[in-house]
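Hi F.,

I've been meaning to write this up properly since the lab meeting, where we talked about keeping a consistent format for the predictions we share between groups. The idea is simple: the sequence comes first, exactly as it goes in, then the structure tokens exactly as they come out, then a line or two of notes. No screenshots and no reformatting. I'm using this chain as the first example so we have something concrete to point to.
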Amino acid sequence: MAESDVPTLSEFLERAWRELVDGVGDAGHGFHQPIVATVSGTGQPRARMVVLRQVDVAGRRLRFHTDVRASKVNELQQGVAWTFYDRPRRLQVRAFGPSQLASESRIEERWTDSLPASRKCYLVDPGPGSPLDEWGSGHQEWAGTRIPPVERTEEGRCNFTVVETEIVEFEVLRVRRQGHRRARYLWADGRWNGTWVVP
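Output, unedited:
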């Protein structure tokens, strides 16, 4: 986004969604590993990094993979807040909305497309967040960089799921020395309604 650009609200929104799409396949993009925040059952905020796995612009959905045993799965009913920041582009995007587990067909599709190195994460025992007597990764058999064969990874399929957020509020912040630009968009009546706001 050139410094001299003066985008319209719709252009500003479209550019942000394009960057999100680019962030899925580019591990070096600042949007590839966003922060996702939830609220625990006791009302405590919880934030963690995830890998952005899919962006559905038309459906306003963002998706990440997780272990069904992870605490975040039980916190989805409060909705999910996403924060993305790409330093070279000086661009921050915040997105909010109700979240749920994806359909079983989509979960199966994403599992089938996953590489053994990614599937390895779902073989951990005990599950994520479980206390340990001493340091451990949960990968006793597949410690370090060892990758299990594909057939062995199938044992982790029962622990794998996909979380999707339907975005209903979207904020874009462009950091500039000449003056920051920030816009907020709310989804209503089948379209995005945007307004410029003070950064």
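Notes:
Helices lie at 9-25, 104-113, 116-119, 150-153.
The mean pLDDT is 91.

If this format works for you, I'll send the rest the same way.

G.
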